[in-house]
Specification:
Number of helices: 15
Order of helices and strands: HHEHHHEEEHEHHEEHHEEEEHEHEHHH
Mean pLDDT: 93
Helix content: 25-40%
Structural class: alpha/beta
Bound molecules: iron/sulfur cluster
Largest sheet: 6 strands, mixed
Shape: elongated
Low-confidence stretches: 1-14
Length: about 400
């Protein structure tokens, strides 16, 4: 049975997952010469730099980026006309020295979680326009509590220019400078410098606020006949991955006719009630886009006995075409890196997974949401998927310079 409150509404801020996060439990203070190191720099251009953690030299000198990697960072910034100490404020994902043997080490996820509160407070106090995150610890600090999936490594995150809607700042991940110095690979240095330059170019750009949207939850589908757009994004929430097994069904569907608007509905029981939607699907004059369109295509054929006509774009393939790194084509990842919106699916996603993960015909728990307090959330989640698909499609087709000629 669903409870009265969502997990988000009842969780503790200091113990979001039931664990204690504090300096005492982190335990790094006693091993540091400069415990709880303060941010350093005059912040004249609104840039915040977040490194992985203080080095031994930083700890001795009492300020971030005092070592060779810091000097390299300073030189690189200076080449782009930025004075690290005057124009930026520098800090780390943890404020104390983490050591292994006689050298500094990357902080553990737990140490990062303990220190997160102070890092988030610095962001809220400084309100940077641009946050350059050097290495994965900074990314874990900034989004680890909001990103409920596997974070992956820095290779997946570097180079994106993320308009983070919670921080209201551009977040730009890049490799940590010590990696560039230690690797001695000129190609890595070139990529790193490009990432830094691209990030610094955002100083000339205002922060990109997410546009407002409207979601219409409908029960009578006749209104779909009034859609005048020649392009829609569609998305289904279903009882599983594959439609063929007994008991499977399309639970709800969403149709976005613009980048800011979506119709969403529980799939009616009868073909007659579904007809306006089926007509839209089979109308070749209305172009269709989806994330991984073979999913919607197969479910339409099998469960709605309708062939979708007018497929024009697949945002998953578009993401892969524009960036062939592994693990970057998912809609939730793209929604965060392109629009800065994170975690809109966390309440619903557990219900969309089957207990038999390896069985494509397994049935998930989405039907449990119907008739309960999360039914509306499910519909909104489905609607947001199509809104972000539509927006992604607009970005991708512009970048690829692709126009939808006759369908
Ligand atoms: S690293 Fe952060 S959480 Fe850990 S002891 Fe130092 S200030 Fe406290």
């Amino acid at each position: 049975m669903s409870g009265f409150f969502s997990k988000k509404e009842v969780q503790s801020n200091s113990r979001p997952d039931g664990k204690i996060y504090s300096c005492a439990s982190c335990g790094l203070v006693p091993g540091s010469m400069t415990p709880k190191m303060e941010p350093w720099g005059n912040f004249k251009k609104g840039i915040m730099i977040i490194g992985p953690g203080p080095s031994i030299k930083d700890d001795k000198k009492g300020k971030p980026f005092s070592d060779d990697a810091g000097r390299f960072l300073k030189r690189t910034f200076s080449n782009f006309g930025i004075d690290l100490e005057e124009d930026c404020v520098c800090l780390n994902a943890i404020n104390c020295l983490a050591i292994s043997g006689d050298s500094s080490r990357f902080p553990t996820d737990y140490e990062i979680s303990c220190c997160r509160k102070s890092i988030l407070k610095y962001i809220s106090d400084y309100q940077p326009h641009l946050i350059i995150v050097l290495g994965m610890p900074g990314m874990i600090s900034l989004i680890g509590h909001r990103w409920k999936k596997d974070m992956g490594g820095i290779n997946k995150w570097r180079g994106w220019k993320i308009p983070d809607q919670d921080f209201k700042a551009w977040v730009c991940p890049a490799y940590e400078p010590s990696l560039i110095l230690d690797s001695n690979k000129p190609e890595l240095e070139t990529v790193w410098k490009q990432d830094i330059e691209n990030a610094l170019n955002l100083l000339k750009q205002p922060f990109l606020r997410n546009k407002k949207h409207q979601i219409d939850i409908i029960s009578d589908l006749k209104i779909l006949r009034e859609i005048s757009s020649d392009l829609v994004a569609i998305d289904y929430e279903t009882t599983g991955l594959k439609p063929h097994g007994p008991g499977h069904r399309i639970v709800c569907a969403s149709v976005s006719d613009t980048a800011d608007h979506s119709f969403v509905f529980l799939m009616p029981e009868t073909r007659k009630e579904r007809q306006p939607f089926l007509d839209l699907l089979s109308n070749p004059a209305i172009g269709k886009t989806a994330q991984n369109m073979k999913f919607e295509d197969t479910w339409s054929r099998v469960r709605l006995r309708t062939e979708v006509k007018g497929w024009v774009w697949d945002t998953m393939l578009g993401s892969h075409l524009l960036d062939n790194r592994p693990d970057v084509t998912g809609l939730k990842f793209q929604t965060y890196v392109q629009f800065g919106v994170i975690d809109y699916d966390s309440e619903i996603s557990p219900y969309l997974k089957s207990s038999e993960e390896k069985n494509g015909n397994g049935i998930n728990r989405v039907m449990e949401l119907l008739g309960g307090p999360l039914e509306k959330k499910l519909l909104e989640y489905c609607a947001l998927d199509t809104i972000y698909e539509y927006r992604l499609m607009e970005i991708q087709t512009k970048l690829i310079n692709y126009s939808f000629l006759p369908f």
